[in-house]
Amino acid sequence: MPSIQDVADLAGLSTATVSRALSGNGLVSVAARERVASAATELGYVVSSNASSLATGRTKNVGVVVPFLSRWFFSTVLEGAESALLSNGYDLTLYNLSGGGEERRSVFEHFLLRKRVDAVIAISLELTPVELTRLLKLDKPIVGVGGPLTGVRTLSIDDVAVARLATEHLLALGHRTIAHIGGNQDSERDFHLPTNRRVGFEAALEAVGIFPDPAMFQPADFTIQGGYTAAKQILGSPRMRPTAVFAASDEMGIGTMLAARDLGLRVPEDVSVIGVDDHQLSEFFGLSTVAQFPALQGQKAVEILMEQLHPSRRTHGTLNTSLPYELIVRSSTTKPPAGR
Amino acid sequence: MPSIQDVADLAGLSTATVSRALSGNGLVSVAARERVASAATELGYVVSSNASSLATGRTKNVGVVVPFLSRWFFSTVLEGAESALLSNGYDLTLYNLSGGGEERRSVFEHFLLRKRVDAVIAISLELTPVELTRLLKLDKPIVGVGGPLTGVRTLSIDDVAVARLATEHLLALGHRTIAHIGGNQDSERDFHLPTNRRVGFEAALEAVGIFPDPAMFQPADFTIQGGYTAAKQILGSPRMRPTAVFAASDEMGIGTMLAARDLGLRVPEDVSVIGVDDHQLSEFFGLSTVAQFPALQGQKAVEILMEQLHPSRRTHGTLNTSLPYELIVRSSTTKPPAGR
DNA sequence: GTGAAAGCGCTAACAG
DNA sequence: CTGTTAGCGCTTTCAC
């Protein structure tokens, strides 16, 4: 591993000049710059980030904290963030909280404090007050994605509007008896997403004069399995079966489609289904949905951080746009069966 | 951010003693150890990993390179590795290659070389010779998981045995016409997994005197969608329909189950299906499978690295066991329909 | 434009 | 057992 001294020797310059030439900070003559460049490539020199960090206080590394890895939303946001960081020359240090308990504590008590990161991205995190305090005490740029972090700039789609859009799609098709599979309110400590989606759903109904029927709501856990079970409840009794279901996530929507099939109902002829996300599997199942774009969200989180870390660099100007979402109509929604 | 000097001052000791007390290397009196401990907690001191790394040459950080994030196997291995690293006091720096092209190059040309990692875990990576060279030139411990890395110690289940076990389960139920949905050989540059599973499949058949019929093989891409399409081919023609399908992954197995349903076939009455993985969704679909345990694989990869990084520490003794796999019989397999 | 020199915060001999 | 000291490899004043 060659050091900056080796490059300096080979180029016949001082380490100071090499440093300036390589980093672009400070003035260096063209000639020197070229000598440095060729010496560096000849030796295969790469700066030691530790030494550099120690000297500058900047690490070129950001920490990303996620509650789970093996879920589509998280891993997709992560993917977007990773590639954006990479192209900015940053590394990504991953902290996964799914281990829980002691592991989780040590992330906040030790790992994040090691001066190893310049900033933190928190994906859909619900933190205890203590954890939040620790995080804020780092006094580093933090941005949340899709989560409810008080005191932290957070990127999140407009859940009310998204739910409203999905519901309006069903209403526009002529549906009047629409069920909603949403989140379980209790379990989600101040996690507003499920609530917001329900609010949007009900707002859409009320806007056309329909009073939301509590029997047309089922809580579930955002998984296929959970959606399946909830949908069986809703679709099971022919007496008051809705003609359409709005699921608060695509996974629950897919569960709903599978439940419908198992009940002998055809989708969309007997029951229409729409979700939210545009999950990997949704296209395959033909599930209509309101897409959100998690990779983009990860990328935007990085842009925000870069802006804070390098106030000089011009941003790409996309920063203050709100997060996009988009209705995608596939084959799981159509007008209600005749006579309903 | 307090420094080691602050702790030394407060404890009335030298920085050297503080360092020794905190790291556990070298002898320190009990009294001193206690003074250091309380001073450190009082100040909320956490070592600067950069300074420490610079001084020792060890970073307490390992790089993990993955080809994708949003796939169950990768993210689950990652999860296992992350939590094992955390409990060893290590950070995890993530490099995701799914961006391709330039991004991929820079990972190997720059990022991994920054002296930021002590070791590398490569998950299911297929590298070009150049990339492999770069990796080996790091001269750091490397372990592969589930991939075909020549020259690198690699953790991988016995794919031949796994496939054989799955096939034998079907044979034991009485099936004699069994199809296999496997990998597309061409696209997978020296990636032996699909081949090995096919070999195991055929070996099981031959062991009971059945000659593998090329018409009973369909290549696919390991996704639900791919499995669905392939299964439609295989199950579509009633003339030579198999009574069972062995899919080389659970996702393809699920695709097969869905295809069967769409063809009006009942699983398992008309056709049995078995996969490999024990994917998140398999339980829900009732898919019989041969489970592998990716989180455990990630964890073992870490154990191997720790053994190399700290030859003194005693290992947990699980190192030389081969990777476990296990037949899980659910509701997608039963004996063949009467008369077949 | 360039170089000398002083650290960044920590660890590891080396003495005592 | 503990303190002194010399770096780890780089960046950044401050002179020239």
Please summarize what this structure is:
2 copies of one chain form a homodimer. Chain A is 44% helix and 16% strand.
C-alpha Rg of chain A, in Å?
26 Å
Strand order of the largest sheet of chain A: 7-6-8-9-10-11
- The total number of structural domains of chain A is 3
Any idea what the CATH architecture of the largest domain in chain A is? 3-Layer(aba) Sandwich
Describe it.
The structure is a homodimer of 340-residue chains. Chain A is of the alpha/beta class and 340 residues long. Chain A has a six-stranded mixed beta sheet with strand order 7-6-8-9-10-11, sandwiched between helices. The radius of gyration of chain A is 26 Å and the shape is elongated. Chain A folds into three domains: 4-56, 434 Repressor (Amino-terminal Domain); 61-157 and 294-309, 3-Layer(aba) Sandwich (Rossmann fold); 159-291, Rossmann fold, CATH 3.40.50. The first copy, chain A, has 13 helices and eleven strands. Chain A is 44% helix and 16% strand. In chain A, helix 11 (250-262) links the parallel strand 8 and strand 9. Chains A and B meet through helix 4, helix 5, strand 2, helix 6 and helix 10 of A and helix 4, helix 5, strand 2, helix 6 and helix 10 of B. Chain A binds a DNA duplex (16 and 16 nucleotides) through residues 3-5, 13-17, 19-20, 23, 25-29, 32, 47-48, 50-57, 115.
